[in-house]
Amino acid sequence: MRSSRAVGFVITLVALGVVLPVLAESTTPAPSEQGSLLANVYTMTAAEYRACCRTIYAAAGYRLEELMEDADPPLVRPAVVMDLDQTVLDITSFQTFVYENELSYTPARWSVYEQVGVHEVLLVPGAGEFIAKAEALGVSVVYLSNRNEANQEFTIAAIEQVGLNTDGIEERLYLKPTGASSDKSPRRDAISARYNVLMIFGDNLRDFSEVFKPARLDDGAATEDYLAAIQSRSDAVEDAVCHWGVDWFMLPNCMYGEWQKHVPDNPVEIMTPTEMTVEQTEK
Ligand SMILES: [Mg+2]
């Protein structure tokens, strides 16, 4: 996408008879790409991101302690359900691969990363401590991920490599079967049938419920369509306000996610409007 946009830009400017400036401009990433780079760097380096994740996991840990201590009679088969990538496992090195090589995400590239990236996977800050606390409280930690079930052995190796408990992991790991939908509902229902699910953790809204499935927009969708779709998703989050911080815990992911489906080629269209002018700043 990055290179095709650059080619389009060059063709447009050649048509306008401004060939020379193109040579200088073509090395400058489009604003949306600069944003993506900064999102990657923020996640990889900002101590603020680390503090944010720790805040969420610490709050969830206190809440889980309360739930377990107050339960009378004691809960039977209590569990927490956790997504893996950018919820428990830090897979930012895949983002580096994509950026460095000017590629985009594809399922095939991701599948290779699941296999060869095992030793590059890190822990999202606070996840390890939360999981240890949950297990100490007698709460099963169940992983519900759209990683490929065909790569299960590699995902188990990644979980082990970051120091997480893998005892009985085959019973606690729900991956996406080959050819299956990315809809987690059937697997979420299967987990709920076996466990008393106390909490869900994710970095994408559909980790929690299919009510958040993003509206599909056509290539030629108008700005109003994008804004309506964004508003609809926001409204769904507000409708679920009884869950956030109570039994649903969202980790930040500004690098990728289904929120990107509602970002047009020119993101300025959907950004918070301003009436401020450049002239006002140059007086
Ligand atoms: Mg995820």
Total separate domains? 2
Largest sheet descriptor: 5 strands, parallel
Question: Which structural category fits the helices and strands?
Answer: alpha/beta
Instruction: Identify the strand order in the major beta sheet.
Output: 5-4-1-6-7
Bound molecules: magnesium ion
Question: Portion of residues in helices?
Answer: 40-55%
CATH names the topology of the largest domain as Rossmann fold
- Which regions contain 5 or more consecutive residues with pLDDT less than 50? 1-29
Overall mean pLDDT score? 90
Radius of gyration: 22 Å
Distinct helical segment count: 12
Strand/helix succession = HHHHEEHHEHEHHEHEHEH
What's the N-to-C terminus distance?
40 Å
CATH homologous superfamily descriptor of the largest domain: HAD superfamily/HAD-like
Number of strands: 7
CATH class bucket of the largest domain: Alpha Beta
Shape: globular
The proportion of residues in beta strands is 5-15%
Describe this structure in words.
This protein has 283 residues and is α/β, with parallel strands linked by helices. The chain has 2 domains: 45 residues; 215 residues, Rossmann fold, CATH 3.40.50.1000. It has 12 helices and 7 strands. A 5-stranded parallel β-sheet has the order 5-4-1-6-7, with helices on both faces. A two-stranded antiparallel sheet has the order 2-3. Helix 11 links the parallel strand 6 and strand 7. Helix 1 packs antiparallel against helix 2 and helix 3 packs across helix 4. The radius of gyration is 22 Å and the shape is globular. The N terminus is likely disordered. The structure holds magnesium ion. The site of magnesium ion has 6 residues, from loops.
